[in-house]
Design goal:
This protein is 49% helix and 19% strand. The chain is built from 14 helices and 13 strands. α4 packs across α7 and α4 runs antiparallel to α10. The radius of gyration is 35 Å and the shape is elongated.
Length: 468
């Protein structure tokens, strides 16, 4: 049917464009036709993909892309999680190995109780760590090596911090102290060639004044390569370990606590070559990640288009309602045209695109930002799975519960956290206990029931008709 021609009246420049389009001299039949057309637009806009398909044969491309994206981002996150697990395990195992290498008499789970109580033990611990560092290539079973700067191996620094001046006589209850902290460092370079000689007080000008001593720190750098990733068809990473052994005497209580801190940095290896099919597997994963990026781009474009269409229809509806009924549409009704699920999907798409790009750079050994990539991919996957709630709303069983949740949150905001926790548990456990309860009630046919939420201080009534 062809649209009837109408005469357009003049409009000033400051008038709203959509409102101006309705300022016409229309007959009753023409007004009814415009109203019917807008009603059809609204009805089609608020249909779900299945209803749109049955109404006009419009294929649910967004729905198909979302289902495909759920599977792809989940597989991507699992694969990256397994790879990141090796990184975390390598860091933790090296830290434990360093504690056994450089702390004399260390045993697992002794971090809170590991301490020394005599001056001899303090010197023994310090010189033990120094000798272990100098003999590292001969004692370590790992592929650890000294850090090199400018072709020279970096030295181990022994730094002691003590009060600038102090005379303490507990027996006479007197003391004279200057609280200014002074730092004195001694540098020990790795011995080349290595021999069986050990370093001690006899060949190092190193003494401690325990009355003034605050802390002693041994600082040195080591390097290693994570070769276990080769067995999993991934290229290895190079690691920099900045180790600090701290002898803490701040309390001056007769107990000096000893701790080892390990600051780990992952870097790209400068020169590497791996034989076999590792590079092919890396290329396959990068192709998969590129396909994920393309899928998310398509999803982002379709959702953005839907949001734009919703805003345009919102303006048209507001203008029509204002001109014909002389009423303004409330803000809550206007927000019905903005689909929050599309916003959620668009955010997840952006995070997935950025995370996938970063993952490709990591696989190509151009970047080593494992933590940032984990946060991006994990958050995007969570948002994608939360989007499943929207598609559950297409089914009557789940639509009743979701609508009940939304109304409960709107009326009583203090229930939002409990409902969010419940939905999270149900999503992770992959089954629905309230759904089973409603299914049992369905056996009696049409139900009228009242749910009591005594813990939140209110009661809500709702009816469930024709449950199937």
């Amino acid at each position: 049917m062809e649209n009837p021609e109408v005469a357009v009246s003049s409009c000033s420049a400051h008038n709203d464009e959509n409102l101006c389009s309705y300022r016409r001299h229309l007959s009753v039949s023409q007004e009814g036709l415009l109203e019917d057309q807008l009603r059809r637009k609204l009805k089609f806009f608020f249909m779900n993909p299945c209803e749109k398909f049955w109404a006009r044969g419009r294929k649910p491309w967004k729905l198909g892309i979302q289902l495909l994206k759920i599977a792809m981002v989940t597989i991507q996150l699992v694969v990256f999680g397994l790879s990141n697990q090796m990184v975390v395990a390598f860091k933790e195992e090296n830290t434990v190995a360093f504690k056994h290498l450089f702390l004399k008499g260390y045993m697992d789970r002794m971090d809170d109780t590991y301490a020394v109580y005599t001056q001899t033990d303090v010197y023994d611990q310090i010189f033990f760590a120094i000798n272990q560092y100098l003999q590292l290539p001969n004692v370590s079973v790992g592929n650890h090596a000294y850090e090199k700067r400018g072709g020279e191996e970096t030295a181990l620094a022994v730094c002691q911090q003590f009060y600038k001046r102090g005379t303490i006589c507990p027996g006479n209850d007197t003391f004279d102290i200057d609280p200014e902290i002074v730092t004195d460092c001694l540098y020990i370079e790795p011995v080349t060639p290595l021999d069986n000689t050990t370093v001690g007080k006899h060949n190092l000008n190193f003494t401690l004044d325990f009355h003034r001593l605050v802390t002693v720190q041994l600082m040195f750098n080591l390097k290693a390569i994570n070769l276990q990733t080769v067995r999993h068809h991934e290229l290895p990473d190079c690691y920099d370990f900045t180790l600090t052994i701290v002898f803490d005497n701040k309390a001056h209580s007769g107990r000096i606590k000893i701790s080892l801190d390990n600051d780990i940095a992952i870097r790209e290896c400068k020169d590497w070559h791996v034989s076999g099919s590792i590079q092919k597997n890396t290329h396959y994963m990068m192709i998969f990640d590129a396909f994920v990026i393309l899928t998310c781009l398509a999803s982002l474009i379709l959702c953005t288009r839907s949001v734009v269409k919703g805003i345009r229809l919102q303006r048209e509806f507001v203008s029509f309602f204002l001109y014909y009924y002389k009423k303004e549409v409330s803000l809550s009704d206007q927000m019905e045209f903005v689909n929050g699920w599309y916003i959620l999907i668009m955010v997840s798409d952006v995070l997935t695109i950025v995370g996938s790009t970063l993952k490709m750079e990591i696989q190509a050994k151009s970047l080593t930002s494992y933590d940032v990539c984990s946060i991006l991919l994990g958050t995007s996957t969570m948002l994608v799975w939360l989007g499943v709630i929207r598609y559950l709303g297409f089914f009557q069983k789940y639509n009743v519960r979701i609508s009940w949740d939304l109304r409960a949150v709107a009326s009583h905001p203090n229930t939002a956290s409990s409902i969010a926790q419940r939905n999270e548990v149900l999503l992770l456990c992959c089954y629905d206990l309230p759904g089973l309860l409603f299914l049992w009630m369905d056996c009696t046919g049409t139900i009228s029931c009242e749910v009591s939420l005594s813990e939140h201080g209110f009661r809500m009534s709702f009816f469930i008709d024709q449950w199937r």
